[in-house]
Amino acid sequence: MKEAEKILDSQLWHACAGGMVQMPLVNSKVFYFPQGHAEHALANVDFAASPRVPPLILCRVAAVKFMADPETDEVYAKIRLVPIGNNEPDYDDDGVLGSNGSEAPEKPASFAKTLTQSDANNGGGFSVPRYCAETIFPRLDYKADPPVQTVIVKDVHGEIWKFRHIYRGTPRRHLLTTGWSTFVNQKKLVAGDSIVFLRAENGDLCVGIRRAKRGAVGGPESPSGWNSAAGNCVTPYGGFSVFLRE
């Protein structure tokens, strides 16, 4: 039996994806470019079998699933598009290109830091920026000597991690010590990767990862899914399941 797909909280997904990433809203209209999608497909797509596929197709967003790779923690989206039959593009429609006039929900507090060589060293600790320590993490008792606490965080798969958060040194600074090396090793983090901390609406502290871009020029692209015959649509183009990765 196929394992059920695990859907991420959209706020955690957006924090991990970064502020430059924008996703269309469900029921909004977007233009789908088959040839552009095919260039990123896992296998060659033969357009000879469908010679009448146009260069762009006006679609409605039927569903958006926010997901994460089970091995790398990198986030991606699975988007279900339904072609709009016999409709001319309406550029005055507020739903075109994902904008429907509704206000964006308030973003929860989050912070991202690119790992230094010291942060990513096996056996080392993580230097926590002051803003993150005082805004995202639970408040330390600065009257204690030294101020220390156990920070409990949840990753994109729901796994729990525990870090020792201490305020020490000359000059004093915030550090994650015990538990950090295990996290670095299991997540295979290296200098240049980014760590994202987010305080969810329910108070949970979450952690995500943004991997540094790797691979030589001309290497394989990130995989995308291609399903040109999915769904039960009355239009001649069927349905499209689109997988977008950073």
Features:
transcription; 5 helices; 4-stranded antiparallel β-sheet; transcription regulation; At1g16640 B3 domain; 246 residues; Putative auxin response factor 18-like; alpha+beta; single chain; nucleus
Description:
The chain has 246 residues and is α+β, with helices and mostly antiparallel strands. The protein has 2 domains: 10-106 and 215-245, no CATH class; 110-210, At1g16640 B3 domain (Beta Barrel). The protein is built from 5 helices and 11 strands; from the N terminus they run H-E-H-E-E-E-H-E-H-E-E-E-H-E-E-E. Strand 7 (160-168) and strand 8 form a beta hairpin. The chain is elongated, with a radius of gyration of 22 Å.
Please render the helix and strand layout as text.
Elements: H1 10-17, E1 29-32, H2 34-38, E2 57-68, E3 75-83, E4 110-114, H3 117-120, E5 126-128, H4 130-135, E6 148-154, E7 160-168, E8 173-176, H5 180-187, E9 194-199, E10 205-210, E11 240-245
Antiparallel strand pairs: 1-2, 2-3, 3-11, 4-9, 5-8, 6-7, 7-8, 9-10
What is the structure about, briefly put?
By secondary structure, the chain is an alpha+beta fold. It has five helices and eleven strands. It folds into two domains: 10-106 and 215-245, no CATH class; 110-210, At1g16640 B3 domain (Beta Barrel).
Overall 3D shape:
elongated
Mean of all residue-level pLDDT scores: 81
Overall helicity? 10-25%
Strand order of the largest sheet: 1-2-3-11
Low-confidence stretches: 96-102, 216-239
Tally of discrete structural domains: 2
Calculate Rg over CA atoms: 22 Å
Structural class: alpha+beta
Q: What's the number of extended β-strand segments?
A: 11
Q: Which sheet architecture does the biggest sheet show? A: 4 strands, antiparallel
Q: Give the ordered list of helices and strands.
A: HEHEEEHEHEEEHEEE
Strand coverage percent: 25-35%
GO molecular function, one term: DNA binding
Subcellular location: Nucleus
Family: Belongs to the ARF family.
Domain TF-B3: 111-213
